[in-house]
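hiii, so i know i said id send this last week but things got crazy w the move. better late than never?? heres the sequnce for the chain we talked about at the cafe, plus the structure i predicted for it. fair warning i was half asleep when i ran it
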Amino acid sequence: MRVRPYLPKLAIFRRKVYDAISQWKERYGGKYALLIEGARRVGKTTVVEQFVKKEYKSFIIVDFSNADAGIRNLFTHNAGDLDRLFLHLQQMYKTVLYERESAVVFDEVQLFPPARQMIKHLVADGRYDYIETGSLLSIKQNVHDILIPSEEMSIDVHPMDFEEFLWAQGDEVTIPLLKKAFEDRHRSASACINTLWARTASTCLWAACLNLWKHIWKIITSRL
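okay and structure toks below
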């Protein structure tokens, strides 16, 4: 049995979707599960891990991309016995779940549709909050022979936008200043644009140089 441990990331970037998940928890937690959809590698799992770690007393992340038969069988064999399901989950993940203070995450849920179908009964049980993540295309394809739960809300996650990029650099001032300058038709808008262009150009140049070096290194090593 392979159980995925929680591994803290070296760098966690602020994402706008975090606020949307917070609103779901405040308004609909316990009434609806939350499905986080998006393309691959846009940060779905990262932001969900960050959220449950900060907002809940405890949590379990079931990663269906590497879940073995033992974990999958838990859901197929205990769909009608949630007490038994939760006991086994807590034992497998060495984590205590607290009623209305814990979350269960189904990561890459599109890889195991029966778990998604169970959401209806899990939400009705009401003990914990449930968050699912799924790749955008696969989540819409892998729905054969299952009933899509109506007790499920969804949020789309997109790649980091430019404001989030600036946040990652420690800049939370430029965008509000630029918005204010445009609203006031102020001359400082031109200065803001020039600053943003210089920063973006330098970042793009660095990325281009890095890609060029990787390409050169690949050529060199292929000839050794």
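btw Residues 23 and 29 are 9 Å apart (CA to CA). thought thatd interest u
miss u guys!!
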